[in-house]
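Protein Record: Sequence and Backbone Structure Tokens
======================================================

Structure line: whole-number tokens from a learned vocabulary of local backbone shapes, matched to residues.

Purpose: to set a sequence beside its fold so the mapping can be learned.

___
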Amino acid sequence: MGMYEFCVKHQNRRVRVTTHNGTYEGTIMGVDWDNLYLKPAKGELTLSSWGLGYGGYGGWGAGIVALSLFTLLAIALI
């Protein structure tokens, strides 16, 4: 099973993600062919956000980290 399939199967689950740039902990909010969208665990630093999203209707909202699927090394369910 590839990273994309794993992430789709485990949406809305808490995970610990290890990338080339560090380790992140949070909830999988979404996934597309290029990115994993992770809502960081409470109190963790947010490195990027998508703002209001499509058409200003909330979209992903502030606080969602977009991680490239190509930089993921490991994902552990917690």
Q: What stands out?
A: The first strand starts at residue 14 and ends at 19.
